[in-house]
Amino acid sequence: LGISVVRRTTVGDGAAPIAAAVREALDRTGAVITTGGLGPTSDDRTRPAIAALFGRDLVHDEAIWQGLRKLWRERGRSGEPPESNRVQALVPSGATVLTNRHGTAPGLLLEDEDGRWVAMLPGVPREMRGLMADELLPRLRERTAADRRVIRSLTLRTTGIAESMLPGLLGEYADGFGAATLAYLPGQEGVDLRLTVRDARPEDADRTLSDAADRLRERLGVHWYADGPTDLAEVVIAACRRAECRLAVAESCTGGLLAARLTSVPGSSQVVLGGVVAYDNTVKIAQLGVPADLLARHGAVSEEVARAMAAGVRSVLGSTIGVGITGVAGPDGGTAEKPVGLVWIAVDRAEGADVHGGRFVGDRAEIRFRATQAALNMIRRGLAGSR
Q: 181 φ, ψ to 5°?
């Protein structure tokens, strides 16, 4: 839309803090959007709080009530909606009702004497998104058509490099590319880099963003793996399909999470042959052919065992690529030599194996996820010839 978000504020369920937050927001901007607090329970206080702020009475809207009754019947419920639902048919006098086709709570739009808006949307994400798309965004487009500036943004995804290392890699582009600003967004999957361009002419904004993205990808090199919300597993599945290779995984500490991420991608059946959750050493020996003396000498969490797991699952399932993961996910089980977070990952193929050992930080779930992310990245880089 080309509309800048000035601030996001979170407040409790009290009428006073809700009204105070909206009053302060109206002093800063011409449009305020609230989410939540439009339901039928006693802690849903957005509607009366904002009505009082605007000096408006709450009046019953029979059309809303009949719509609630109809929805109640369509959902297969007998009788009438509870009386508590009647509060959802109360509308501040003079408000515009935003029809909710996705749930029970209608949105509400109020305008003050200075032309400032407050749009109240339900807090349920599906309903909020639906009302935003159906009702609010068209009104905002119309309202801002005369002076709207186009905003274009694109997110480039990286993994395998720490946020603190990126400015050095990007050099003079660490803060952006001229008119394209750059934001660093770290997360479990890696660091997302969001480029944003603001320009009055859409074609200029698109060209500036495209040029900046090309230069950013060049600087990032092998650390960049996708644009937008694409998951690394999707990238790996696509690369395997292009290379016509099949995958098999052997997992210990990740307990099948790598296989789950891979098989969540549509079309993965053309790539993933299967996997073995070899949590206990007896399974590593019996199902993957890991030598018992290797386990005795090096322990389950070791480079040698990760190699043997990857080679074993590739041999047993007949895949092009075999992946082995073994580690200490915690919160206990660590030692001075093998602390919590230590994970060994091996990717085995006909021409040899790549092995990586590292210590991942976080709780058990975070360590397991980060281990699968590292394994996916090893597969991706191996297929790209940049191990």
A: -85, 160
